[in-house]
Design brief:
The structure holds two protein chains of two kinds. By secondary structure, chain A is an alpha+beta fold. Chain A is 24% helix and 34% strand. Chain A has one domain: Peptide Deformylase. In chain B, 30% of the residues lie in helices and 42% in strands. The longest helix of chain B has 15 residues. Chain B contains six helices and nine strands; from the N terminus they run βαββαβαβαββααββ. Classes of the chains: A alpha+beta, B alpha+beta. Chains A and B meet through strand 4, helix 2 and helix 3 of A and strand 6 and strand 9 of B. Strand 4 of chain A pairs parallel with strand 9 of chain B.
Chain lengths: 148, 186
């Protein structure tokens, strides 16, 4: 668990700066900038996939997914693994509980692109990259078969 | 100032009857010679195993050296071998700006599915980045499936692509689907 102090506020500023500097970036997690704390920021409001359905800028401390629903596949890339993309399966709706930078508890229901972004950033907190979640379309469609 | 050694690139393809040990056998040669495997795609097609690799090596090195070392290994495995030297400007990565679409085509097997669809795409300047085909279904009712990933040039949309393929879909009596798979970057 992360304790909220001045250092956390500095970390959040660094995360937001990193997100705003990355072209088209919609989120950054602390481990991506070398800090192993459970903190991440997400903002999909400027992204064409997320602009219709979002909670604006989210600064999440100790986030936890307490409910998930639905499954969809999206091709993801990540600035920590440049030049590689893959199809990843994610929940389409999630309920996330976290602490705000002021220490208050908040719970949101996210869906669509914002839900995917939150799951992607929260994976970084557990050291999981999208590469660990790639689903292979080909083997999924065409199961093992004999050609004789 | 130290000068960076010039890097040579080669396209290598190896195809033959599938069995355990093909990748290890070929990779061992690259390892022994000090070649880097940059991009590669290796897959089983029916009972054949097909390897396509872009490998690199700093000068001094030669294509004949690479070929001569790979040849006995491929012969022993019963695989065909081709090696081509890549020109420096072939190695530069091509960036695409437009949407990337997955085009899925399936229907009763018949001659010309691949040709007719890809000809249509080529005429519109649409570049194919990945293509897989598979014959599925039963012996009596074979079904052909083609999945391809294509980069749309500026001004083209998935809808315009789908509309463009509508006549062909009717003519060949196949299903043709287009969906956007442009990666989202996090």
């Amino acid at each position: 668990m992360v304790t909220i102090d001045r250092e956390i506020h500095t970390l959040i500023e660094d995360l937001l700066d990193t997100m705003h500097d990355g072209p088209g970036s919609v989120g950054v997690a602390a481990p991506q900038i070398g800090v192993t704390l459970r903190v991440c920021v997400v903002d999909v409001s400027a992204n064409r996939h997320g602009k219709e359905n979002n909670h604006g800028q989210l600064c999440m401390i100790n986030p936890e997914i307490i409910a998930r629903n639905g499954v969809a596949v999206m091709r993801e890339g990540c600035m920590s693994v440049p030049d590689y993309t893959g199809d990843v399966e994610r929940a389409t709706e999630i309920t996330v509980r976290f602490q705000e930078p002021d220490g208050s508890a908040r719970e949101i229901a996210a869906s669509g692109f914002e839900a995917v972004a939150i799951q992607h950033e929260m994976d970084h907190l557990d050291g999981v990259l999208f590469l660990d979640r790639i689903v292979c379309l080909k083997t999924g469609l065409f199961r093992r078969k004999n050609y004789r | 100032m130290t000068q960076q050694p010039e890097i040579l690139h080669y396209a290598v393809s190896v195809v033959g009857k599938d069995r355990p040990g093909i990748v290890a056998g070929v990779a061992e040669v690259f390892f022994r010679l000090g070649c880097n495997i940059a991009d590669s795609s290796c897959t089983m097609l029916a009972g054949e195993f097909a390897m396509i690799l872009i490998v690199s090596h700093p000068r001094p090195f030669s294509k004949s050296r690479l070929f001569d070392e790979l040849k006995p290994v491929c012969e022993q495995l019963g695989m065909s071998l081709a090696v081509r030297t890549l020109h420096a400007d072939e190695v530069a990565r091509q960036e695409t700006m437009g949407e990337i679409c997955m085009v899925s085509v399936y229907g009763a097997d018949q001659p010309g599915i691949v040709y007719r669809v890809t000809r249509e795409l080529a005429e519109q300047g649409i570049n194919i980045m990945d293509l897989n085909t598979k014959l599925i279904g039963t012996h009596d009712e074979p079904v052909y499936v083609m999945m391809l990933e294509a980069a749309l040039p500026d001004g083209q949309t998935p809808e315009s692509l789908e509309a463009m393929l509508a006549d062909l879909k009717k003519e060949l009596s196949v299903e043709i689907g287009v969906r956007v798979i442009t990666p989202v970057a996090f």
